[in-house]
Every structure is written in C-alpha cells, then in structure tokens.
Design a protein that fits this description.
Blueprint (H helix, E strand, L loop, with lengths): L31 H4 L6 E4 L2 E5 L16 E2 L2 H7 L3 E3 L14 E3 L3 E3 L5 E4 L20 E2 L2 E4 L5 E3 L2 H5 L5 H6 L7 E5 L9 E5 L7 E2 L37 E4 L7 E8 L16 H4 L5 H12 L7 H13 L10 H18 L13 E3 L13 E20 L22 E16 L1 H8 L2 H21 L13 H20 L7 E8 L2 E8 L10 H4 L3 H15 L7 H4 L34 H4 L17
Parallel strand pairs: 4-18
Antiparallel strand pairs: 1-2, 2-5, 3-4, 6-7, 6-8, 7-11, 9-10, 9-14, 11-12, 12-13, 15-17, 16-17, 17-18, 18-20, 19-20
Length: 622
Amino acid sequence: MTPPPARRRRNSANGNAPAHNLPRRGSVRRAQAITTYGVGSLIAVDQESFVVSGLDGADESWSLDESPRIHERRLARLLDVDYFRLPPASDDGSKDGLRVRRFPLMHSCPECNELQRHRDFNPPAGRSVCGTCEVDLVPSRFVVACEAGHLGEFPYWQWVHRSLDRGAAAGGGQCGGKLKLRSSGRTSSLRSIIISCTCGQAAEVSMEGSFRRTALKDLGLTCRGTRPWLGTSVAASECGLPLRTLQRGSSSVWQPVLKSALSIPPWSDGRGDPLAEHWEALRQYDRREHVEIYLKGVFKGECPVPLDEVMALLDAEREEDPEGEAEPTFDHRYSALRNKEYERLRSGNHESEQSRAEQFVCEPPLGDQSVLGPLGVTGPMLVKKLREVRALKAFTRLVDAESTTGAKEMPLSGSSLRWLPAMEVHGEGVFLRLNEERLGGWEKATAVAARTERMRTAHQRVLEQRADDPTRVAPSPATPRMVLLHTLAHILINEWSLEAGYPAASLRERLYAADDMAGVLVYTATSDSAGSLGGLVAQGEPQLLERTLRSAVHRAEWCSSDPLCVETVVSGAGGTNLAACHACVMLPETSCEHNNILLDRALLVGTPEEPDLGFFSNIVAH
C-alpha cells in the first residue's frame, strides 16, 4: 500500500492552473481515497507525513478532469448533492491526482536532536532532510485533535515550559531557546521520549502523561479550530473544545462517515443521469406541461430523456418521500431508502425483462425452496447484477463515525459543494429473509429480550457519552431481530469464506431489520476478480444454501475461546457484544456495517444453560 502523490502549488497567472508536472509521492487505489486516505486523513510516505487536502480551493481541489462523475439519484438526494465523483486515478497516465499538504509541520532530526518546523531545517528542495546533518527528518509522532474534527500540532513549547506561569505557557511566548527531542532508549514508553529547551528556564520533561484526557486542558490550552487540510487561506475560528493528544497513526485521528445505496429501478439503468443537476428543480412542478417547458428552457432543444420517462422518474421519487414527517430527519430518509431496497429485493427484477444497461438483476432460484422451511428461512433471491455507490459524506476525529451526531461531522470542504467523493462497486449477492411468524414468536421470549436489552443498554450508554446533547440521542438499533440478522450475516460470510473460496474481506453485509423487514443481503464488496464471477450467486440455490446454513450454525456452536466466549456477560467495545469474538463471528471491518458490535451467537444457537434461546436451536445438537 502506497500513499497518494504530494503536490506543491506552482505559481501561475490566474492561480488556478493545474500543476501537472509536480513530483509524485506514491499512489493509492481509488477505493482507499474514500475509506482510508480520504480528505483530512493523515498518510505516511516513507519518512514523511502528509494530510490529504480538501475538495475546494485552487490548491486543494481534485483534478476534475481525472474525477469522472457517477450518479445515484437516491443517495444524492439523501446527501443533498447533485452527483458524485470518483477519486482521481493514480496510474501512469494520470497527470494530477490527490493533493496533500505536509503535516505535522514539527519535525526532529535524529542526529542533532533539534525539534522545530520543517522549513526551519532548511532542507534542499524536494527533500525532507536536515540541512546541516543531511539525515532524514522525522515527523512529529504526536498531534492534537478535538471532537469537532479539528487537527493541530502538539504544543511542545508549552509542554516543556509548563512549570512557568500558566498564562505565559499557554500563550506560547518566545524564550530564545531551541527545542530538542531525544530518546533515552531505556524503554519503549512515553517516559523515554525526552523534550528539552536550550533556554534553560525549564527542565527537560518526558512525554509521559501527555495522553491524559485533561493534560492539555491543565496547560490552559483549548482547540483553535485549525484545519490544515484546507490550507492557510482558510481562517481558523476559535473552537474552544478540549484537545486530546493522539499518535499520528491512530485510527482515532480520522474516521470516515460513509453512506451507501444500491442502484434499484427505475434509476438503475442510468436513464435519468443526464438530468442529475435538475431533479430538485423538476420536483417543484406537478403538471406535465410545466415540466416540458422547464426542460425546453434548460436544454434549448430536445431533452436527452423522453418526457414520459421524466414523469415516471418524478413519480417514483415522490413515492420515496417519508410519510408522517413534516421535516424528515436524515435517519428517517435513510430508513426510507433502505425500505425501497428491501421491497425491490423481495419482488425481484428479472433479467429477461430488462435492457443490457440494467444494473440490478434479482431473480428467485429455480430449486425447491421448501428445504429452507425447517430452518426458518424464506424468500431467497439471487442478485445476479448489483451496483452499490458508497459516498464519503464527512469525517470525524476521536468519536466513532457510526454513532456520531451531525454536529461532530467535519465537512470535506470549506464551502458548499454540489458533489461528494464516492466509489461504485459492481458485483453480485444472495438475499434471504427470515420467516416472520417464527421470528415473531422467538422475539417475544423473555430470555431473548433480556439478553438483547443488555446490549441495547450498553450501546445506548456509549451513544450518550459521545453525544453533544445526551437527551437528543437516537435510540440504539439493537433489537432481537437486528442482532440475530447481524450475527447470521457474519456466520454466512465466514462459511462462504471457508467453503466457497471467497476472502472474508471481499464480502459485505447489508441488513434490513425493522418491524416490517427481516432480511440480509450478502454481496461482493470489491471491484476486483472476486466481484462478479457468479460464484456467490450459485451459493443461493436452495439445496446448497440449506447445507451452508446448517454448516454455519453448527460451526457457531463452538468457539475456540469457549467457555469464556459463550458465558461472558460483557464483550466488545463498551460491552456492546455478548457471545462474540474474533475466534467465532467477528469479521474484517470492511465487511461489517456496524464495526463488529451488536453481535451474539447465543441468539443463533443458544447456550448450554438455555439451549432454546437460539433461533436455530431446532437444528443444533446440544
């Protein structure tokens, strides 16, 4: 894995000319520019460190010529944009690419031990070496961040001079000395990292204690609102939130807020793509003649989409408007999006009735589905063609992106843009549902409800701890139905990884768990050769699916960490799991919608003390 190219601004007459001849620092896959190295993230390149620049501004924007547009109307409407763009390609034919800025700016020289800003070392052009010692500079291992998403340099000067008057230390005044950084080599802990100043006013100190939650607050320091990924042209506004010290490579430094949607009819054949920037305006008109007048005014001639199809698409979009909400929240609109996907997966979309441009083909298997009845599984569907669009909506720092509130999401640009970065995946999958009658009876069992309530309470507590206003936190999604479907998806992915030759990381779950939904879609999540070769669809044939389910359930009966795993009363981050660990049901992070929380295989197979607890206990031999 190599990082994206670094970019330096080249002066030009208008300040906006693309710098096509600037040096490259590396490359990443397009998907990584959404999930791993997105806007605002830190990326290591050999001995150097950079932050990926924002989307807007002359020096920060992507090269739009190398960022093709992609369309997914339902997701674009949810995120209030017109369209999406793929990240710039990073192949040999690319003239530009992802642009980055050097961060952190504080560096140290392992030879002379000086600790100062990169430019103060007077490095030769294009190199990151000490101008005096000619050795590679080392970027600061430590950065600071706040829960609002801001990022800054670790305050080394204040840390060394904290024995001085608090006001003077917080102000970061000049003492006339130079900072030094060295390692005592005695241990690998923070105690061995020694910071000193040649001014002689303060004794040398170690980095021990710098990660305490109140370490920087005790120095009188709060967040100044710095956003280095947007450049110096973006004025920092005082934030005032507490700062936390982080390792530069910590996962808490950057977490993406990703939203995704499946392309389903009537949008999945691309007919409406030419009108991507006009749908919001078109929705204002109810009458056919008014729509026709608008289209003639916009296109100055013949509209690329027939008027009948435009009206049909407008009707389909209005059908997805959430009911009963004067101003539907984001969560309500996202639920409506999932409901439409569930309805389409249930009803199918036969290939013989569609054009070759259709990107969603879903058909029932040909085999006898009655063999699945004893398992409580019904309605399997073979999703032979599938397109998923995943968009990077924002990012967070310090807080979990899956449970954050909108106030803690940091946007990708300094101004409002009508597009977002996204990637598209073409693949295949298997969709199945649980028998509603059997599921309803199982959910009402006292032991099932009590076990799920423990997870729900723990998850709700985590959500409230991370929220700006604990009284306005959305309820935890943990229900018996959701936990059951989630754990079932995990054991299916693990089983297909073992039996069908799929890497677990190439498969992904999509859960449909609500009062009127009880389904799970397992599909290929990569665009490489494992994506659409037909192997996963073949696993959905009833006879084979029945054997797979039985094998997966039997495998879930025992974990190599038992009896500790199955008897645990708390597991996972914040106690949000029960009988679940990496030895049994947990998956690679790219495969799970919920970051490996809200899992419990006991709800599948029961426990030695309560064998009837599991939904599939009728096929488990206790």
